[in-house]
Amino acid sequence: MLIYQNRTRSPFKTNLLKWYDENKRVLPWRHSDIASESEVHQRAYGVWVSEIMLQQTRVETVIDYYNKWMKKFPTVRDLAEASLEDVNTQWAGLGYYRRAKFLHQAAQKLVSKQPNKEDVVKLPSEVKDLEELPGVGKYTAGAISSIAFNKVAPLVDVKQDVEGGPRPGDFNQSLMELGALVCIPKNPKCKSCPVNEQCEAYRLKNQNKITSVEQFPVKKKKGASHEEVVASLIIKFEDKYLFVKRPDKGLLANMWEFPTIDITNEEEQTNKTITSKIKSDLLVDDRILQITQIPEDDLKSLKITNCGQITHVFTHINRLIHVYSTEIVSSTGVANDATKWMTHDQLSTSDVPTLVKKVFKQYQDHVAGGRKVQTTLKLKKRKVEEIEEEISADSDSD
Ligand code: SF4
Predict the structure, then answer these.
(1) Cβ < 6 Å from ligand 1: which residues?
(2) CATH of the domain at 60
(3) In this structure, are residues 171 and 16 in contact, taking their beta carbons and an 8 Å threshold?
(4) 304-358 pLDDT per residue, tens
(5) CATH number, domain at 341?
(6) How many angstroms does the Cα of residue 190 sit away from the middle of ligand 1?
(7) What is the spatial distance between Cα 80 and Cα 76, in angstroms, rounded to a whole number?
(8) What is the pLDDT of residues 212-225, one digit of tens each?
(9) What are the φ/ψ torsions at residue 90 (nearest 5 degrees)?
């Protein structure tokens, strides 16, 4: 929505920086008291982490995650040396786990080139070099380069004559701050905007040439989302539940989930066909057989319970999940890289995706619903018995 007129370059920048100096929020990754070279690189790490977190998440939410992250992984080296599991645990709740995985990979890439443990790991200062890191695109590279290293680096598609000049890092941050506080997508605060005199959208609106400044920027059409149907099976043994690791590429890569199978054909979405597919395709998965050690024939005769359905929306995927459960009475195999058991408590504190927690909640609700029905039936049965006893006592006394 922000469009400025080129000829008014100077007031635009001056006004914006003045407003930024007076209105910027205090954020933990904004440090101005930087003196040494190692502090600059440490700040670059903080800017990088915050920018990756902010890609899909609001500032208010990110602050807490950022502080915890920096406490757990205070340096690039600490992050590189952590396990992906620890990294995902710190990330849990922020979603889009690919971001955490890329941060981890990028840290390892940097450390592999700077093995001396005594040195602060340096981030590149140029956009083109930063873009070589996994998960760092043009915008993030521009933010790190300008904010941490004070280099002239565009964040948005603006003309060079506006980007240049002193304080390139602050200028980029002032643009971000304007977008967060004033030039917001819905009902931007144009009247109090520090650059409304230089704003082309505002001018067009005042001249009645457009109906709203919100018409800018013209939004690209989103790619069509597609539907997916799967069945997830909760396998219970004693007080534990079986999890399998997802492939290391694609959606939710390397994350733990309940054993899940695609249901591709619409005709398959009946209880009978899904149950049969779980038995014929899912329960005979090598990973499941290896940890449970239950003979295939026994697995096939297991009671499979339908616990209902839930939906979950990823960026471009609407997923329908049929939730099923079963219980096994023995499991003599050992866990491996691709499978593990987790208790309810372990699940509550683990970094499994939100979707997995939703599946488990559906299962719990189903179990609780079943218990409620059973309790009601027992109470009804007891009442009938009491009435029968009373009738029988009455007839005896007659
Ligand atoms: S005048 Fe309105 S549309 Fe233009 S930059 Fe300011 S808030 Fe955004």
Answers:
(1) 1-2, 182-183, 188-190, 193, 195-196, 199, 201-202, 213
(2) 1.10.340.30
(3) yes
(4) 999 999 999 887 888 889 999 999 988 888 878 889 999 999 998 888 888 999 9
(5) 3.90.79.10
(6) 5
(7) 6
(8) 888 877 666 666 67
(9) -65, -30
